[in-house]
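Entry 0007
Protein: Thiamine pyrimidine synthase
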Amino acid sequence: MTKESSISHSAGISRRYFLQVTGAGLVTATALGASGLRAKAEAYEKFTWISPRGTLEVLDDYPYWAAKKAGYFGDLDTDMQPGPSDGTATVKFVDVGQADMGFPSPGVFSFAIQNGMKLKSVFHMGARDTFSIAFRKGEGSNDLKTLEGKTILLGSAAWQSITDPLLAAQGVDIKKVKYVEAGWPTWGTALAGGQGDAALSWEGLRAEWIAKGLDFEYWLGVQNSKLPANTFVVRAADLEDPDRKAFLEKYLRGWAMGLEFGYQNPRAAVEAVFGQFPTLAKNLGPELGTTSILQQINVFRGDMDKREGWGSHDMASWQGFFEEIHKIGQITSPVKAEDVCTNELIGPANNFDKAKVKADADGYKLSEGFAALDVEKIKAHLFDSAVK
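Output (structure tokens):
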């Protein structure tokens, strides 16, 4: 099979095809791995979080690893699972009770809503739009309408639910855009190899791609989009159970403390992840690792002066997203943001001693490689790869 023929093509993945790709078959414990899974749990004996990307060896989840290393989860029994690379697994596993919390993009969350999954967003990690469009050097444009008639590479067919609203909000006629499911984790390599005209990317991944020799230019959602990004979802019924709700408050407090720790000392948060995943540390190194985490901190923090705290939903942004995807037919019925997103756990999650977390972060002794980095210099060049 040739490189070309091993990639599945579609001229705009139809809804029927999209549902076949992402919804075919039942999720099974073996797909995720037997560790930590169960059909039901009465009181979260072990709380399982499932990744949307099929791997945990990334910097995206730094708040968890930083919080775990610092002991911020206390005696809570928590587990992280990579899940299958199918983009919708993160909601499907939560829906059927084989995981307790997923981290979908808004587009994949809309897939869950459209398919009747009774899930609710409880902690909005992506305060700014993390998603971007990658182009080969010299081929990018700040006018995404130039993508009409062009081909965009995706790692999973499910990612069309991310890309369609992103493009539509920028005035693109999405019926004129073609998609290629180029596979995880090879879609970036496919772009570099001359296939397609652009590819979906996101903050943090930009730095990881550089480490793999993939040097692109980007239309950046953090600079140009008002749409929300990935969020933590749980079964809506769990919020009605007092014990589970109390657990969720404590669990999310651990994440919020990890986020605060990373904001106060980004390099220490990278070291927490690298300690967990030595191969990632070897592949990225201190400078690109710190670059990646700074990109993500910008997304996760957003404009904190206008937020209720870490994880707070901007309901206007979410409502705008739901109206956009209803307009393009990604969902068939209107959705009210307040019905599927809640800030009821945000106060308890942010009720921690920020001075102590800052003291922990400031007191962390960095290794030699990280101590030598100039964080402010890295920040100054964070968006150098944006399309000029």
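Curator remark: Confidence is low (pLDDT under 50) at residues 1-41. The chain is about 40% helix and 10% strand.
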